[in-house]
Amino acid sequence: MAEIRTTEENTTVDQDMKATTAITDTEPQISPILGYTDEPLLPLSKACSPLNEILHNMSFYTQLALDETPEQPPDGLTIDESAAIRLYTIEWDKPHRSLYSMLNYHLKNNDHEALLPYFKYIKLFVTALVKLPCIPPLTVWRGVTKNLSGEFPPGAEMTWWAFSSCTTEMTVLENNMYLGNEGDRTLFSVEVMNGRTIKAHSHFVTEDEILLLSGTHMVVQSQLSPADNLYIIHLKQVIPKTTSLEPPFEGAHIYPEIKRPFYRKKRFIIPFFSLLALFIAGVIVAIVVGLSKSTPYVCSNPFQQQGSFVTGRNPSATVLDHFRNAIDFDIAVANLADSTVTMLLRNKDDVFQTTSGITGVQPESIVSEDFNNDGKLDIATANNDDNTITILVGIGNGLFQAPVNYTVGSSPSYLIAADFNNDKKMDLAVTNQDNNSVSVLLGNGNATFQTQIQYATGNSPVSLATGDFNNDNQLDLIVVSQNDGTISMLAGNGNGVFQAGKILASGTSPNFVVAADFNNDTKLDLIFSNQLENNIEVLLNNGDGSFDIGDTYLTADSPSCIAVADINNDGNLDFAVTNSGFNNIFIFLGNGNGTFMNGVSYDTGNAPSFVIVADIDKDNKLDLAVTNNGDNTISIYRGIGNGTFYPSSTFKTGNSPSCMVSRDFNNDSIADIAVVNSDDNTVDVLLGGTIEAIRYVLTYTTGQFPYSLVSADMNNDNKQDLVMTNVRDNTLGILINKGDGTFPTSTTYTIGQNPTDVMAVDLNSDNRSDLVVAYAYNRSISVLFNNGNMTFGTAMNYTVGPSPSFILSADFNNDKKPDLAVCNQGNSSISVLLNNGNGIFGAKIDYATGRSPGSMAIGDFNKDGNIDLAVVNSGQNTISVLINKGKAVFSSAVSYNVDKVPSSISAADFNHDGNIDLVVANSGSNSIIVLFGDKNGVFASRATYKTNSYPDNVLSGDWNNDGKVDLVVTNGKSNNVVVFQNICKK
């Protein structure tokens, strides 16, 4: 049986994963072994000499590895190189930790200093590994006895910094040490491209071990749960944008040299097998490890995930307040990476709708052309439910005039625009699905159209293409009729009149067609999708309106839309196809002769319905945009330029987006996107910038690196303003609220270096909000008194602990004066400062907490009339509760374990039992935990909820005015805000 190496001899693989897997931070990490290549290449004994004082009996195990190594090691390695790998595989005698255990421990913790003594060994070890041939791309397995599904959301990128052991043998799952058949279990299915097989150089000669190099960068493809408590996560290795592992010598290959596979003519392409592998694996795993018994459902959880709303990049702090009126709560979010503040204004439907125009009922298709020859792009939609076409005349700034409708046939479903009568005016053609016809509307050149002319088609026409298919220099029409499975051509006469349809080919439930020259013979060919057979068929044009049947290519479930372009810049046309039943897209790269390479898959949102290819971010590389009908989003995939794409970014649309076009609507030379939303009768226009910054309504510029955010009435106009710390330019920024949720005026104040947190409170009873600021690298906080005219007095500084990170204000000694509490990350403590009444504070009183306290919440946890404190300890994965015994004297901290890297905490009564509860955001495990309090201030029970990637801030408030406390969570890596609605009965 193959073995999966554990981190230390008495640990489980669950702990091994924690020690060998590290998800990259919001900003890319630097390799913890950066600089190892500067070391000389030494014999093993000398390379390991710096470790003799660190690892138990190091010289013995070094000699053991050399003694076991043959004089002529395989793979062309030297004795020392082969022995370096063998030494890595040796288990030290218990209870001592092995070389690989300690090495991976420091790699996982990104501890560069601790790794320095290992550098000489690492130089020899990595030199040996890269001399081994890369295994062919294949799927390897790794199992842990814990539910890690929340930490690996689809589309997330991550880097494993440790050297990771995997297996190709699924029988390893039978061993309880690795997966077992009880409790929470996670199986990783990893598509790797540069793993190394080390069996020939291992201490364990029967071990089929695949070793992944440090810095292996992966994208989460999908998840599956084939049995209760069993989770399968499919990862795919990709080459990172920045170097994650330096080559040990010149000419060394960390990754294999990429060669395109030869095309084998006249055979079916089966790209979807790799996608089905995860499902098949789930079935096998369920058989191997057994299906666990279902866990009974207990209705004791107060929250359900309400919705996800897009913010700027890396939201770092949030405030919930009344920005527009006294009734509705809005949310302000500071976005760390793009220096903005995003407002989420609550309404009954959604937040952050982009510019919209009204269409007919249930628009299903959209085109964009200049219908009135004014140099500005207009939009036309086909409206399935009221049998009309809507014309929206463009103003030129991304906005549109009032709609004008034209009647067509029954259930119009697919729309195209072209000059069918050669008068240099754009005309329209649309399929009418329910009366088996195509309507042609000739344009007048002023954005008005003549009455439709209908032409008979096959049964249920659903897609159209146009071009000169019979070489007479006139535009023809290709019609796909789904119910009778025909592809037919209506030859054009050149005057806007078309001949009767001629059947070209038949498919099984064909649903989409595109025309282009796929074999470079200057004749327009066709490819069409068959929805029920899950394939793509190619028709090659003979030049006279007849077509030869080409090859067939299998897709995933329910191919729904095709887009054509030269995606990899090789001069040959490629195509992308959405698979609405499998939530992915396939990319087929063309060979230039009418044949295509194997499809490559990318995960999408739910039920992808339409795809376009365009240079959205203006970098001269083609990108993809995909509408996801099932979750009302658009996924954007940034092109690398070689036919591959980075993972998607997702932006909110209206309900049921079904079709879209990409053009420059606001004349800024950047491609924009228009999308029709079938269920709410709108068109959304997303104005393009960079991929990461498709622009939102209500976004405001801040200083550099906004880190902390509070709301307060800073100018006494009874409107909540915003105050934020800007770390990199050492300023405070204030945005003045106009009263309608907009902030047209801003003011900036220079303060001390590296401000990390700010608190607004009236400290001196003058009815003005004063400010308290903490600084990252000082042992002090500053108090700034508000003069009432948007100016502040000279800062008064107070000593606290090292690296103050969070400030909170409350009346801790019941004298009706606001006091202060400060988290000190540098010495794991909090400082309490009592207010003398005029804003002057006494000396600090320190209380010990857990390691690296970073956030606090307050409440009367034990109902004794005193304000207590709860603190998150990010360095210890705990929270500390400090009970106020009266007069601001706190008891010793009581600790409660939470998930990985807790980052934020909030307090309220979430379950309506009259006791204060706590909620903690855990950025390292993509979760929030609600700890339910009792009347004594004890938090014995809990509920856990999964979030998106890297939740770093949690707030509580009544989001929907139903009298129950909801939660709002920012997710720093998935760039969105998630609302958890309280569903408890009052």
From TrEMBL:
Q: What EC number(s) are associated with this protein in UniProt? A: 2.4.2.31
Q: Which InterPro entries match?
A: ART, FG-GAP, Integrin_alpha_N
What GO molecular function annotations does the UniProt record carry, in alphabetical order?
Answer: NAD+-protein-arginine ADP-ribosyltransferase activity; nucleotidyltransferase activity
Which of UniProt's keywords are assigned here?
A: Glycosyltransferase, Membrane, NAD, NADP, Nucleotidyltransferase, Signal, Transferase, Transmembrane, Transmembrane helix
Q: Which Pfam families has this protein been placed in? A: ART, FG-GAP_3
Cited SUPFAM superfamilies: ADP-ribosylation, Integrin alpha N-terminal domain
Q: Which residue windows are transmembrane per the record?
A: 268-291
Q: Which family does it belong to?
A: Belongs to the Arg-specific ADP-ribosyltransferase family.
Under which name does UniProt file this protein?
NAD(P)(+)--arginine ADP-ribosyltransferase
Organism field: Adineta steineri
